[in-house]
Amino acid sequence: MIVITPTLSIDECEIEESFIRASGPGGQHVNTTSSAVQLRFNVRGSPSLPDDVAVRLMKLAGSRLTQDGVIVITAQEHRSQLRNREEALARLVALIRQATVREKPRRPTKPTKASKERRLASKTKRSVVKAGRRSRPDAD
């Protein structure tokens, strides 16, 4: 079990890992080893996630989410396969943790009387400044 929060955990069998060859420099070693990790997690098919968390997770995933509802995370920064696996898993856990946080609903508020008065006073002041700039017809 992978613990996300004290009340939420996902089973390890829900995560698929595949190893691919990493791109970038590394000499001849990079052509022979598959050190990059591609981690797949099916959000829609996960029995561990509550529906509201799954919906928020799909919104947060963005381009990492496939049309089938699978999150794909690729880690290839490290030369070690083990460290790439740990990093990919850490990224997934962080993403799910972020999805567990509920956004506070916005409560509409009204402006205070003092703020209305300040706004009207500044408008009046500005109006006087602009009126002083107007050209007046010459009184001959």
Question: Helix-strand pattern, N to C?
Answer: EEEEHEHH
Oligomeric grouping of the chains: single chain
Tally of strands: 5
Poorly predicted runs are none
The CATH class designation is Alpha Beta
CATH architecture label name: 2-Layer Sandwich
**Whole-Å distance between the termini?**
94 Å
Number of helices: 3
Mean pLDDT: 81
Pfam families: RF-1 (PF00472)
Keywords: Hydrolase
Biased composition (Basic residues): 121-134
GO biological process, one term: rescue of stalled ribosome
Describe the protein's architecture and organization.
- The protein has 140 residues and is an alpha+beta fold.
- The chain has one domain: Double Stranded RNA Binding Domain (2-Layer Sandwich), CATH 3.30.160.20.
- Helix content is 37%, strand content 19%.
- It has three helices and five strands.
- The chain has a three-stranded antiparallel β-sheet with strand order 3-4-5, covered by helices on one side. The chain has a two-stranded antiparallel sheet with strand order 1-2.
- Helix 1 crosses helix 2.
- The longest helix has 21 residues.
- The chain is elongated, with a radius of gyration of 28 Å.
- The N and C termini lie far apart (94 Å).
- The model has no long low-confidence stretch (mean pLDDT 81).
- Keywords: Hydrolase.
- It comes from Methylobrevis albus.
